[in-house]
């Protein structure tokens, strides 16, 4: 049975409507950028302090990790520090959201984060490829990360039968998936990428991996002396907490039931209005309180982030109602839901599309229908 089109038939826009959509969204962006200033700088500096102090407190408590309450508290605080560093600090700074401050600590081109993957690789695979070609099959490597089948339009392979199992492993080791994504090991195996290219990309990644492993699993455990093992295990658990959280938030951003996937030809001669249209239809928001939004790096506002990746993410909650109203005027689905609901849909996709009989869904329209 052919899969139903996910909200394709009632979301067609004419070229005139797309032009108008782009004008409205551009105007909103310009208004926000004109208002950016001291409160945004104060916000990101406070996040930076939160990363530092929760990290110091967590590592300090782990030094007394032989006592279970201290180990649990230290692990939790270190995990929170790593989450904030990756999600609200590193991810947003590397998008250039705070380059206007001209502060080297928040320079998007040079910022390095607490993860085994290099920031340079992330800026290419995420900032460029993912944000330019969001949910475009064969162009956005984040669609399944080369491991998972999440849409019926993806060709089924026998390896997908086991994806409900290795999706769990991928979540636990998510930082490693991010780290090796740009190596494109599949292309190397198929002879489409040379070993010389792989070696060139591996050298800086190897240095970053070595630095991270030495810091978390050698240096800090050694500083703990007789408490070496509790500190090592605390660091391991904190990294696992961060990995599971980032996997959950990121997958909820583009792989829920109503998130859509697009064929390659949709980017041919793509206008700004159609690019905006595609970002909205391929993204999903999460509802929650202020603390939840901060811990998600404001990727809980994935739609706003994909429309405006260079606007400070702390502004997304303010503009979300306006974006939703614009979507309503143009008949575009504004996909949002609770974390439990959205992640439940992601999990269902992972299980459902592991099997071949759920495949061969009809690809959605490459371009909005023109009038």
UniProtKB/TrEMBL annotation:
Residues 70-336 form the Fatty acid desaturase domain. GO terms for biological process: lipid metabolic process. One of its GO terms (cellular component) is membrane. GO terms for molecular function: oxidoreductase activity, acting on paired donors, with oxidation of a pair of donors resulting in the reduction of molecular oxygen to two molecules of water. The chain crosses the membrane at residues 61-80, 159-178, 217-238. Pfam families: FA_desaturase. It comes from the Bacteria. InterPro entries: FA_desaturase_dom (IPR005804), Fatty_acid_desaturase (IPR012171). Keywords: Membrane, Transmembrane, Transmembrane helix. The keyword Transmembrane applies. This is Linoleoyl-CoA desaturase. It comes from Fluviicoccus keumensis.
